[in-house]
Design goal:
Elements (H helix, E strand, L loop, with lengths): L1 E6 L5 H14 L4 E5 L5 H11 L8 H25 L3 E5 L2 H11 L4 H12 L6 E6 L2 H13 L15 H17 L4 E5 L4 H17 L2
Parallel strand pairs: 1-3, 1-4, 2-3, 4-5
Helix pairs in contact: 1-8, 2-3, 3-5, 4-5, 4-7
The chain binds thymidine-5'-phosphate (TMP).
Thymidine-5'-phosphate binds next to helix 4.
């Protein structure tokens, strides 16, 4: 089973992933937590290029292909073997980030992104995807607070340096995806307090685990 979490910067994915992990552990289910970009050793090197604020001039196509390269390595080396061994994989961002950031927001042709995604995924698809929906003004403030207090790395702020309009487009992109595929996406209001967000996520997750 593959569970993915998506959302703008500062939407609280890390906190919710911890809650999901605690729930799975208490339920006696075997899981791993991973992320994109950077879920493998090779991917961590790609991540440092992608998130380096010194690389603001990266071409959108270079950016797209680096995310795709990270994902191929991640799927082949980690995700598929883990799923095949019966583990639940919780992934912080996956191919929907590419559709929303490189497609809807950077403006790369969506049909090209969809073709690339299907080439990379080879039939793999998340069973459930949580979108933590939040006003980007709030998300960015949270993200910058974490950068300033050291809990988020300053070396990984290329996207936090993008304008508010960029993040608004990302938010709208996610909501558009959720409208297109309501069976997979669960949109959660991430402006509520973390415990309330968790309740909603766990409730949906329980149903999804039952239908596995
Ligand atoms: P994060 O690990 O702090 O969420 O940062 C990852 C950043 O990379 C985030 O700003 C979203 C961006 N991203 C893309 O633009 N495309 C992708 O395919 C993925 C996985 C992430």
């Amino acid at each position: 089973m593959l569970i993915t979490l998506e959302g703008i910067e500062g939407s609280g994915k890390t906190t919710q992933i911890d809650y999901i992990a605690t729930y799975l552990q208490k339920s006696g289910l075997d899981y791993i937590i991973t992320k994109e970009p950077g879920g493998t050793v090779l991917g961590a090197k790609i991540r440092s290029i992608l998130l380096d604020p010194g690389n603001m001039n990266i071409h959108p196509m270079t950016e797209l292909l680096l995310y795709a390269a990270d994902r191929v390595q991640h799927i082949k080396e980690l995700i598929t073997p883990m799923i095949e061994s019966g583990k639940i994989v919780i992934c912080d961002r996956f191919h929907d980030s590419t559709t929303v950031y490189q497609g809807f927001t950077r403006g790369i042709d969506i049909s090209l992104i969809q073709r690339l995604n299907s080439l990379v995924l080879e039939g793999l698809a998340p069973d459930i995807t949580f979108i933590l929906d939040l006003d980007p003004e709030i998300g960015l403030k949270r993200a910058w607070r974490q950068i300033l207090d050291g809990s988020r790395s300053e070396a990984e702020t290329r996207f936090e340096n993008e304008k508010l309009q960029f993040h608004e487009s990302v938010r709208n992109g996610y909501l558009e995806l959720a409208r297109q595929e309501p069976g997979r996406f669960v949109v959660v209001d991430a402006s509520e307090d973390a415990a309330k967000v968790k309740e909603k996520i766990i409730e949906k997750l329980k149903k999804s685990l039952k239908n596995r």
